[in-house]
Design a protein that fits this description.
Strand content: under 5%
Distance between the termini: 166 Å
Number of helices: 1
Number of strands: 0
Structural class: mainly alpha
Shape: rod-shaped
Largest sheet: none
Radius of gyration: 50 Å
């Protein structure tokens, strides 16, 4: 058996508690630092991810606008072609009617001239 004089045990217990406190404080300090570093890493990674998603969204919208513009331009061009074709057909019909009218006038004039002669 070991016997301590009066107060020695309390002194040893106090030193042990102080040693444990400093070790616990060190462990807590390291754990808190690790947690904060993880949170900061996640924060930076999250910001980078949000920026990446924003860039992708902007690029997607830009491509959609370009495709929409190209589609609308093709539709306008097709409508112009269709309108031009209709105009040319109407013009052709009017010319044909004018030629028929001119031919009718020539025939009428030649018939009148034949009757007079």
């Amino acid at each position: 058996k070991t016997f301590f004089r009066a107060g020695a045990m309390e002194y040893l217990e106090a030193n042990r508690a102080t040693g444990l406190d400093s070790q616990a404080t060190t462990i807590q300090k390291l754990a808190r630092g690790y947690i904060i570093r993880q949170q900061f890493r996640d924060l930076v990674h999250g910001a980078a991810e949000r920026e990446k998603l924003a860039r992708e969204e902007a690029e997607r919208k830009k491509k959609e606008r370009a495709a929409k513009f190209a589609r609308e331009k093709a539709e306008r061009d097709e409508a112009r072609k269709s309108d031009k074709k209709k105009y040319e057909e109407k013009l052709k019909n009017v010319r044909q009617q004018m030629e028929e009218a001119d031919e009718y006038k020539r025939q009428s004039l030649s018939e009148i001239a034949d009757r007079k002669a």
